[in-house]
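User: When convenient, might I ask for sequence and structure tokens for a protein?

AI:
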Amino acid sequence: MTDRATLIERTQQATDAGLPVEFTDDEFATMTEDDAAAIIERFGSTTLMRLPSHERAFHDWLREADPSVWNDLWSETPESIYAVSLAFLPEFRGTGTEGTFPICDLQTVDNYFFTPAMLLERESTDFVEAVRSRFLAGGSLSPEQALTVEISTGPMDIWHFAYRRGVDLARAKKAVASLVEDRVVVHVPKAEHLSMFFAEEE
């Protein structure tokens, strides 16, 4: 376990060198909420940090699986590739591979970012409950069913979904189209419209 003083010293060294700070998997796993808050308070959200190793692996996959999306995200920042604001630090704390850098503001290609608020309540409630029951009973899920459950549990994007589930991207996008046609979910492909959608939800 790494103590807070060591984490702050490491962040200071990286900042002094003009580099993004890079925490180890163990440091992400043992870092407390208070540690993350103290680091952000001291260094600010303009300080850059490298994505955790599991997220870098995901973006390496994305570079091959969907180059247009990878280019939209990273092609203009080769000097700070896979580096994001320190403000994301709380999302990456903990063990496992749950913390992600959500893909939600693409400019040159369509967004496939979803939140529970984008489920059409009347049409989706029974569907989500039926799928959860099927899953708990040990049944397999179609991409449409798995996608609906993931959307119901929190913000997610189609690329992380496909990567984690081993689903072909074309098949994952077909699942979105099917869910939209069945009025289970709303798909908002343009970043400016996505912003307006969330403004209305607040």
